[in-house]
Amino acid sequence: MGVGVSHWRLANAVSRLGQLGVVSGTALDAVLARRLQRGDIGGHMRRAMEKFPIPQAAADALKRYFHPEGLPPGVPYATLPMPQQMMSKAREQFTMLAAFVEVHLAREGHDGLVGINLLTKVQHSNLPLLYGAMLAGVGFVLMGAGIPREIPAALDALALHQTAALRLEVEGGAADDVRYLRLDPGGFWEGAPPQIQRPRFLPIIASHSLATMMARKATGRVDGFVIEGPTAGGHNAPPRGGSVPDERGDIAYGPRDVVDLAKIRELGLPFWVAGGEGSPQRLREALAAGAAGIQVGTLFAYCDESGIEPGLRASVLEHLARGEIEVRTDSRASPTGYPFKVVTWGAVAAARKRVCDLGYLRTAYVMPDGRLGYRCPSEPEQTYVAKGGDLADTVGRMCLCNSLLATIRLAQTREGSPTEPLLLTSGDGLMRLGDFLAGRTHYSAADVISYLLEPVTG
Asked: Which helix (H) or strand (E) holds 448?
């Protein structure tokens, strides 16, 4: 769904109704920092921070970022140091705190299960995010946008408060020049750390061959799969048929991109089907194919509990009712190089001055002196080229980091330039949302679940 759309309120509502509510872990540290700077409306962040088992880290975060009255108009948000291979203890702890807060609030007031969804490509933040979520009792970890082969061993280590390591993807290095991201939980505790449980791990995959590899060659236990088709929102796997982008950069998918669920079933692990599955009929078909259920994103993204700014939600639904919505699979938008779903409607995209100040999708590269540098094809073109990047890679790129934060009312303000423009991502199922709405202008998470389950259970 993007950044902060499936936030703690939505996950809490879904879990209370007996389903698995999942919070988005992408850029959670930036989300927490900006919520605090807005004044922590309702006091929810501070309530959860009081439960964080490293009190000094929570106190330091409040001192640095909390503004009781919110920031004055026109004052920009203070930003965190950008993620990199070696981060300070304080930076790691703040990232842990952000994941803890989101999962704690999602679990508050009920006994249901809660999961967290992370992007494999956002490498630098994943270990502290995982550890913070585990400290809050997260039950499931879902990871896509890459091959999360090393995550099971990391979860095993973190559950024992032992050092976890992930291989860092680096461009330009020699084959034997291997770099790692590490998190040592032992350095965070003065006394004995709390006992925590290893969450179940569900890689998000788009082919049966990748599922087979994960089941047989991952570094530890895989507990099931989310089988995501190319109709899902956010990042998609590249087309297996080698589709050529059209003049707008859009790509198409074909029969080779349909996953053979019979082969998935042969692996003997539970699986959930995702991508255009948000209907009772699709749920019945998934269950008949041996799935444990479905993962639904787009229907929940526009419900009352979603993190999308309410006025934006209303605008999209109004334009949808008039047939003025389009969902594109843009091959250029994401700096990761993965295809990315982009929603276009009546709003005109504002021009944006290229700035890279969040850095979640930066790529590490080896500089001539052997040190690591970082670059992103969405940063200023001259800067990217000066770092050894190819100018052609900058064409059509969007700053997902800043634009997705704008979608949830956390847009950065910059002196001398407009507020960061928003970017909305949804699955192709958005185009069919009118059938579900049946004339309504808004709906709840409970309405979604009733709609999906009534034909199955009734």
From this structure: helix 445-457
